[in-house]
Amino acid sequence: MNDKSVMFAAEFEPAMLNGRRRSPRAPVSLDARVGRGGLDRALCRVVDLSIHGARLQTYSPIKSGSMIWLTLPIVGPVAATIVWSDDFVAGCQFQAPLEQATYDALLDLDQKPRSLS
Q1: Residue 4: left if φ>0, alpha if ψ -120 to 50, beta else—which one?
Q2: 91 within 8 A of 55, measured Cβ to Cβ
């Protein structure tokens, strides 16, 4: 019986919990406005948020690759690019990440009870 040992080297990379995402996302429900410059602002809802971007529910389709201004509560207008879209849902990437304190304030705003007025 010929006992041959085989040695090999391997490198491994731990699995990313967030897939391709640079930062964790949080589910939210925030009213916002989306526009492409000028006065064409339309209502939308931010349904998840990270410091690098958001997923939006819109009332009209937005084309992938579009540059938009997303007006967030507390923050105001944020420049973003639509990286994917599917009918009335779209994902955008902010041109500049949100500050951590701003992100935390938006999450806190989402947790506060809403009035029924």
Answers
A1: beta
A2: yes
